[in-house]
Amino acid sequence: MDDLDAIRQVVNQVLEAHAEEEGGQRSQARAEILIHSMHVFAQRGLGRTTVQHLLDAAQVSRRTFYKYFRNKMDVLESIYRIFIDNMLLHFHQEMRQSRSAKEIIRNTTKVYFDYHVSMGPVIKLMMEEARASSSALAPHRVRAQRIAAEELTAEISRLTGRDLDPLVMRTMLWILENYSLYIFEDGEFSAQRLEQCERAMVGIFEAVLLGGNATAALLERQDEE
To answer: Is this model's pTM higher than 0.90 or not?
Structure first.
């Protein structure tokens, strides 16, 4: 990848945070396998990637590889977890810095797209894999959407005074996810599609979450009878 240093920085940052939480030390060998595997998965896809391809890219021995990973899917799952954890970190930061609901919408939307673009084509592969209920990536996708939806709902409700249904925010996140796949349609990044998606997403967010009273009434949490 052209921005290998940026990928390395993200991976190392997340692994160091995990090591601190678990009271251990970050393995540089494990980090290098993850970093270089992103490029392999992006170029070859999951089906045509073998463990040997990952070994060659990271320049590590088979013994070292199996010290940290069970198979290639274990590597992809680890990459996806790093992506999820870092994405949630960015969401936290933007929500803390935003002073209005409109700022939250605009800033988190921009962060979401910018981060997906920075990860490159491998993000499309991971997102498509994570949407399969049988995939090892699926639980991480569900967890991330639940956390993001709950926090965004809480912050926007706090700033607007509306008790929004969390399902509304989950719906917004599903749209964001589809737009991210559209940006890399046919395996190629499109700056034009990115601009279109950012503009459309902000418009949808603001119309739905900050619209008039009639719209708001449809979105607010309904008391169970």
So the answer is: no
